[in-house]
Write a structure and sequence with these properties.
The structure holds 2 protein chains of 2 kinds. Helix content of chain A is about 75%, strand content about 0%. In chain A, helix 2 runs antiparallel to helix 7 and helix 4 packs across helix 10. By secondary structure, chain A is mainly α. The longest helix of chain B is centred in the first third of the chain and has 32 residues. Classes of the chains: A mainly alpha, B mainly alpha. At the A-B interface, helix 6, helix 11 and helix 13 of A face helix 4, helix 9 and helix 11 of B.
Chain lengths: ~325, ~300
């Protein structure tokens, strides 16, 4: 389905056929890969891979939401992890009061994140450039300190969930494979939704504003409503990722919303390939796999991560996605 | 009550001065080259570690401090030469990412060299006592020394920026860098010097605070965020703005933490007041920043027109 939407619209937009072929193939390949993975673990692969893959999809979802505003709206939000935390705490706090239904958790998370995004977005979007980066950082820190101070919900130590959320009164999510497919379905749904939104008029206005806000204003589009809507949508999707993260770890803590987390999310988006949607998922995969394998190799693994990051920024502009396009797009060009 | 107020105001002043020392370099770098350097907090941390090491080697805090300053300056130049100079023409996103990478590298580097455990050094014997400030009220001499040193540095910076040729170029660069370059000034070299000075000031702050705080790899992170708050409130590129905002943030944060709960108890019941106090006080300066940016999106003293 993602393939279809991609082909029809990209064709009209870019004459370079080689590019859209990769753009369409990457999400389809990723979806197949993720869908087939539980098969591998049932055939005897380490079940731990299932856990890692689940986390990759959850952070991929968060990175995808950040890419919506970062890649398509040029809004460098340095407080995006706050929304993950809001989603996670919505689930955690509701669960600690005896509300265990996943749909209710999602509802709370979306409402809280939308409200937070609306207020902070309205203030942040008054500013530009560095000031926008800094003010989103400040709001992220505010959310972080709020959660640290709530001693009724664990404060600094965090909140342990008694069990995963229930779906229609059943504890289906306790099954890791079932939970895995729920996460995959949500990821695909959000990807499809984001893709449709970006192909629609809304997405075109957003990209137009990214490229030249003054011209968009001159032809009659006020940027603020579009940017604010994108900001709120991105925040709610990240909160959804937060609900899933809380369920995956069965633990909620302010550590989910530190500014370093926000930095890592930006890192995932840029390393994977900014403004591509799949890039965020790819970036999350790279980041979490590096974390997993480098940390097994040495507990100074962040040193390697830092070096890789600096090298990528200095030398490879369009991230892993660009490298993939270079690799597979070249043959078609000739 | 008056005693507490005086003590806390002095603490706030000392904290504000410290913030100013770190913020001054950052706001200059921001202002002249439009370069966002997340790794500035790490330079503060490096300054503290250098001071600790040199103090242990020479057995004298003063000698340690005097050796740490040029070392911090040199370290800033090395970083500039290796990484940062390739980033000036990039957009903010690239700068954020690359300097975030530098933070990761230096964090782990420090852990490898000095270990993850906090290190502490003693306050030098000569300045370890306390002095009377108001009647019977005494205040630690070393903290007063930090305030004095900070104000001296601020005054020195003021003279440097307002009354020297380099300072003039710097101000011109902050308001219109391409024009300064067109007039035949090597803005890159100017920037390298500014960068080194900024690194040294941050290192100085780290070195001065080392005897009071424990020196640990994460010490730069918290101060980095506060420094950003300071330069955003003050207006990016403005030393004067950074000074005013640093004192404002230092005082609001310190006084808010000590008097916020007391004031809240007048309005709420004790239990509610303590919860509201715990929630509100850490958020106070961020609320301040959001409020100031809401009314003045370019800060209190915008250096660039229309920035």
């Amino acid at each position: 389905m993602t393939q279809a939407t991609n082909t029809t619209s990209e064709k009209t937009e870019t004459p370079r056929r080689s590019l859209w072929r990769v753009e369409a193939a990457a999400p389809a390949c990723l979806a197949c890969l993720f869908a087939a993975l539980p098969l591998a673990t049932s055939l005897g692969a380490d079940p731990f891979y299932l856990v890692i893959a689940t986390r990759i999809m959850i952070f991929g979802l968060a990175a995808l939401s950040l890419d919506l505003i970062l890649g398509y709206g040029a809004m460098v939000s340095f407080g995006h992890a706050a929304f993950i935390g809001i989603g996670a705490y919505a689930a955690g706090i509701a669960a600690s009061h005896g509300v265990s239904d996943l749909l209710l958790h999602v509802l709370f998370a979306l409402a809280a994140a939308a409200a937070f995004a609306l207020v902070t977005g309205l203030i942040s979007l008054r500013t530009r450039g560095v000031y926008f980066i800094m003010i989103t950082l400040a709001f992220g820190q505010m959310a972080y300190f709020l959660m640290v101070s709530l001693s009724a919900y664990g404060g600094d130590d965090g909140l342990t969930l008694q069990a995963r959320s229930t779906l229609f009164g059943q504890a289906w999510l306790e099954n890791d494979v079932f939970f895995y497919y729920v996460v995959l379905a949500i990821l695909l749904l959000c990807f499809w939704f984001a893709n449709c939104t970006l192909q629609a008029r809304f997405g075109r206005v957003l990209r137009g504003t990214r490229d030249n806000a003054e011209r968009m204003q001159a032809i009659g589009f006020e940027p603020l409503p579009y940017q604010l809507t994108a900001y709120v949508v991105a925040g709610t999707i990240a909160a959804l990722a937060g609900v899933l993260l809380a369920n995956q770890a069965e633990f909620v803590s302010p550590a989910y919303m530190t500014w370093q987390r926000s930095g890592e999310l930006i890192m995932m988006v840029v390393v994977g390939g900014i403004g591509t949607l799949t890039g965020g998922i790819l970036g999350a995969a790279i980041f979490l796999l590096l974390e997993e394998f480098l940390s097994a190799f040495s507990h100074h693994w962040k040193l390697g991560l830092g070096i890789i990051l600096v090298l990528i920024v200095l030398h490879g502009k369009s991230g892993m996605h660009g490298i993939l396009v270079d690799l597979f797009g070249k043959r078609d060009k000739r | 009550m008056t005693n507490l107020l005086v003590i806390q105001a002095l603490n706030g002043l000392q904290f504000g001065i410290l913030l100013f020392l770190v913020a001054a370099g950052l706001t200059l770098v921001f202002g002249v080259m439009d370069f966002i350097n997340l790794a500035h907090g790490v330079q503060y941390m490096i300054g503290a570690y250098l001071a600790v090491t040199f103090t242990q080697v020479t057995d004298s805090f003063l000698a340690g401090l005097l050796l740490a300053l040029p070392a911090a300056f040199a370290f800033g130049l090395v970083l500039e030469f290796l990484i940062f100079r390739h980033l000036y023409d990039r957009d903010h996103l690239d700068q954020v990412l690359a300097t975030f990478g530098v933070i990761l590298i230096l964090h782990e580097g420090v852990r490898i060299i000095w270990g993850a455990a906090p290190i502490s050094i003693a306050i030098p014997e000569a300045v370890s006592g306390s002095v009377p400030v108001l009647g019977q009220l005494r205040y630690p001499l070393y903290r007063l020394l930090i305030i004095v040193a900070g104000i001296a540095v601020a005054a020195g910076l003021y003279i440097f920026v307002q009354h020297t040729r380099t300072g003039m170029l710097l101000r011109a660069g902050a308001s219109n860098a391409p024009m300064v370059q067109a007039l035949g000034v090597d803005i890159r070299r100017l920037f390298m010097v500014i960068f080194g000075i900024g690194a040294m000031l941050a290192g100085f702050a780290g070195a001065m605070i080392a005897p009071i705080l424990s020196v640990e790899p994460n010490m730069g992170d918290g101060i980095l965020i506060l420094t950003f708050v300071v330069i955003v409130i003050g207006g990016i590129g403005s030393i004067k703005g950074a000074f005013v905002a640093a004192l404002l943030v230092g005082l609001v944060d310190t006084l808010g933490r000590s008097f916020g709960p007391i004031l809240l108890k007048v309005v709420f019941e004790p239990a509610t007041a303590s919860q509201v106090g715990r929630t509100l006080t850490p958020m106070l300066i961020y609320l301040l920043m959001a409020a100031i940016l809401f009314f003045r999106p370019a800060g209190l003293f915008p250096a660039k027109q229309g920035a």
